[in-house]
Amino acid sequence: MTKFIVSEIELVDKFKELMQASEDSFLIVAPQSDSDIYVQFTYNSTKLYCEAVSNKFLPKKKQLTETKIGLLRQWNFSLNENESQNFEVTFSSSNLPDLVNQIIKIFNDVYGVLNTNKFEIELESF
């Protein structure tokens, strides 16, 4: 799988590509400065399913505090303890620029990655 560095505007275009691909496709988004932190997306006809990395997969020094987990919960994320063991939420696909802004907010406020204006992405489309 090939990784690309993209801007906020280009990230919107990558979401559009994901939405035109098959339901087995996925998009992984990480801040360019820290690939341990990521959110990943799949799409099914009207909604974008999102997973945000949990403490299970984060290095010790980057573990989320209860306060940071509380922020994710305020944004309707829940911890999937059975399958992925990541935090998950579903987003509407109607406003992709707002979704990109939410990703930036998650990276900044939850994971402490500041100045996020470039993203490392992997798009696997079928």
Topology of this structure?
Layout: E1 3-7, H1 8-20, E2 26-31, E3 39-44, E4 47-52, H2 66-74, E5 78-79, E6 87-92, H3 96-110, E7 118-124
Antiparallel strand pairs: 1-7, 2-3, 2-7, 3-4, 4-6, 5-6
Instruction: Give the terminus-to-terminus CA distance.
Output: 12 Å
Shape: globular
**Whole-number radius of gyration?**
14 Å
Number of helices: 3
Strand content: 25-35%
Order of helix and strand elements from N to C terminus = EHEEEHEEHE
What would the average pLDDT be, to the nearest integer?
Answer: 93
Q: What portion of residues is helical?
A: 25-40%
Largest sheet: 7 strands, antiparallel
Structural class based on helices, strands and sheet pairing: alpha+beta
Strand order of the largest sheet: 1-7-2-3-4-6-5
Unreliable spans are none
**Secondary structure tally: strands:** 7
Considering the chains and any ligands shown, give keywords for the structure:
126 residues, single chain, 30% strand
Explained architecture:
This protein is of the alpha+beta class and 126 residues long. The chain is built from three helices and seven strands. The protein has a seven-stranded antiparallel sheet, with helices on one face. The longest helix has 15 residues, at 96-110. The radius of gyration is 14 Å and the shape is globular. The two termini are 12 Å apart. The model has no long low-confidence stretch (mean pLDDT 93).
